[in-house]
Structure formats: C-alpha cells, structure tokens
Design goal:
Layout: E1 6-8, H1 18-43, E2 76-81, H2 84-92, E3 97-101, H3 110-124, E4 129-131, E5 137-139, E6 146-150, E7 157-163, E8 166-169, H4 170-188, E9 194-197, H5 203-220, E10 228-233, H6 236-239, H7 242-248, E11 253-258, H8 260-270, H9 287-302, E12 307-312, H10 321-341, E13 345-348, H11 354-364, H12 382-386, H13 395-413, E14 419-421, E15 424-426, H14 428-443, H15 449-460, H16 468-480, H17 489-498
Parallel strand pairs: 2-3, 2-13, 3-6, 9-10, 10-11, 11-12, 12-13
Antiparallel strand pairs: 1-7, 4-5, 7-8, 14-15
Amino acid sequence: MGLKGVTLKGASSKLLSDAALEFLASLQRQFKELRRECLKARGSRPEAFNFLPASPAQTGDWKIAPVPPQLLDRRVEITGPAEAKMVINALNSRAKVFMADFEDSLTPTWGNIVSGQEALYEAVRRTLTFSSETGKQYTLNERLATLFVRPRGWHLEEAHLLVDEHPMSASLFDFGLFFFHNAKEQLLRGEGPFFYLPKIESHLEARLWNDVFIFAQNALGIPRGTIKATVLIETLPAAFEMEEILFELKEHSAGLNCGRWDYIFSFIKSRPRVLLPDRASLGMDKGFLRAYVQRLIQICHRRGAHAMGGMAAFIPIKDDAAANEAALEKVRTDKQREVLDGHDGTWVAHPGLISVAQNVFDAHMKGPNQLGVLRNDVKTTVDDLLTVPAGERTDAGLRHNIRVGTRYLEAWLRGQGCVPLYNLMEDAATAEISRAQVWQAVHLDGLSAQALTQVMEEELAPFAHGRMKEAMALFRQLSTAPAFAPFLTVPAYEQLLNEGQ
C-alpha cells in the first residue's frame, strides 16, 4: 500500500483497497480538526445544566426530511455485534430493523472490526454464510430486516490506520468503510445507507456528522439526503439539546432513540457526586429517566421524526419456566409503557423477545408509527431532567455491580463485547453503570480500597479463569482512581493494543 500519509498497521483485507483507504484518509483530513474541537468542548461544559437559548431549532414548524418507505414502520428493532452469525440471525429475524454494532457490543480488536465490515459487505450482496464449529450452516433468507450500522463514538480512535502519522477517528473509519463499499449497492437493491449515531453530547457533534454525510455523498456521487441516521440520546448533555440535534441532521434524520443504559451511565458521569440507587431499581417510569423519555417523544413528533424506545436486555430463561414468564411479563409491561407513551418502536437484544415486543406494539399501535401523538401535555423542566428517583443502595447491588463489571471486562479483553450474564445481555454500557456505581461507593459511600479488593476476591473467585486477573486489576484501577475515567473502553483498548490486537 503506497498512499502518501496513510499507514496500515493491521492485517489487510479485500475491503482496504487503495481507493477505500484514499476515501478514508479524505474523511480524516477533512474533519479531524472539527472532531478535535467537539471533543475539547466536552471538557469545558459548564457544571450547571440548562436548555440552550432560543434558536431557529426551537421555533417555526420545520420538519425533518421524509424518510424512505422502509423506515416508516420500525416497531421492533434487534441489535447486536457486527459478527457473521449474529448478522445472519438478526437479518433473518422477524424484526423490522437490525442494527449491526461496531460500538458497545463489539470489542474493537482489528480482527473483529475488519471481519465485521466483511460480513456486512457480503450481507448487503446476499452472499454471507457462516459455518459453526459443529458444522451447522447459516444462510440469509429472501426477506430480511432493514440494516442499520452503528459506528464507534467520536471519542474513540482506530489505531491500526494512521493518517498523516495520527490514528484515524474510529467513527469515520467505521462509517467510511461501510459507506464506500455498500451505499451504491444498497441503493441499487432498493435499500439505503442507514446509521445509528452513538454517544453524541451536543448539537455541534450532530452538525459534524451532517457535514460528514454531505462530504461522503458528494465524494461518491450519491444524492444529498440519501443517508438517514437515528441519533441515540444516551448522554445527559444531549437530552438538553434534542431539538437542536434533530435540526442539525434534519435532511439526514431518521429520528432519536432512548439509549437507556448509556443514559444512566452518562447521568452518573456528568454528576459524579450525585448518588443513584441500585441499577435494578432504576425504571424508565421514574425521575430523570421518565422526564427524558417524555421530552424525546414530544420533540420528535413535533418535528416529524420517529421516537424509538429503549433496549429490553432480557435473555429467555430456558430451565425455569416460572422465572422466564415473570421476566417476560416485565418486558411486556415496559413495552406497553413505551407504546402508550407514544414511542414508534423499540429495541430487543434477543430474537426470543421480538414476538413479545411486537405483540404489545401491534395491540396498541394500529398504524406504522405514532407520529400523530404530539404529546402537547408534556412540560419538561431542568429539574425534571435531573431528578433522582427514590431507591436504596445495597450491599447486594454493590456485589452485583462488581460481578457484572469485572466479568464483562474479562470477556471484553478476550474479544467478546456482548456477554450474557444473569439472564441479561450485558454490553459496554451496562458495564459502565456497574463500574460507575462502584466508583461512587468508593468515593462517596465510604467503601475503602481494601474492602473493595476483599469483596472482589469473594465475588469473583468462582470465575478465576481466562483473563480475570487482568480484568480485576483494570476494574479496581478504574474504581479507585481519584478522577472518574470517562470511558472504561479507552484504557481497555490501550491494553489490547499493547498486546498487538
């Protein structure tokens, strides 16, 4: 590979042609400074939260651009890592949408990233197959869910591709490589390049994505507005700028989504001295979670955009019918809350929940969506978005956080970013909640570093295999550090790089 200023440090792939690398480099050079400015602004945000001053985004009767027909009905979406088997099973599922994830449910080893892109390349062309270790064959059906792709967040870098001696933005790499190879093919097949955008914290970061979309479409000769993207409102700062985020992306918008688990983590990260009760008691019907959901639906429908609900992370319990039914009933209750509030669709993490969620939405949403439910009754204040629901912080909750956070990290370091634990599908977002609450226990609730070590040894002794030693060391380091680390995946990624992954 002889492109000037471009250095590939990982194994190559058929997708990493000179033309593709040139396109990626053009994205990085065009937007590296704007990205840097956006990330710098995160560190200079005022401590006090408030809505933005009056602007064109808050006035008038503007709407987002119309979405294509295949995006009108999104009542059930399934998500999972961009891995061949998962891609086939999810596209074959009865869900309306599959979000192939390069972010929270995928460990970003170079092998995972490249093989994920290769799997999507073949899936778009209907040639993807997979053979399990037992010889079972997986192929794509004729009828498939609509594909969305979630790139990594703005804060992450792809260290295996250097542009002008600097690591490339992971967001631009994931988006750019998929878009370069697949956008035109998708359009020929009557589909489209659709994306989910994670970890956005401001309308300026949404504007950056919109500029990226315009640049990429122009570079490949694709009509402006072809790309459609749903923004995950999963950070507390973004909840105060939802209307402005829609406004910035209005020609490329496919709505907003309530990314509940990351949102809880962001609430702690943004207000680290404010204690939350145990994660298990944080329902979407209470406090700051309830307020942000109502506001999101109101703003989306006012602007003609889909308001997508949050994740049901439950995994069916095969060996306990009573426990399984009790858990399913909780899922039904949660999905009924979403559809009655006015959501246009929802997320599930397991194919076994698709029919459960769909039955609830079918019963209460007779059309393809609920854009006509304007929710003019909603009046959200700053205090509403900052209200902590009542609840206890228990020793059992602390121990559960330690088990989940550390066991997830152990799997992540082995290259597995989506981990079934205690009948829930855990990813980086839920692990972040766990380590954030443990950090608070150490710094605000009087848990000493020595006591933390003792509890970790007690709780993790049954799982002392694989990379548990390294995971325990990293989890302890993050939990006892004087300053709260913004993301656990950043030091974990550095560890992978040091190991040549």
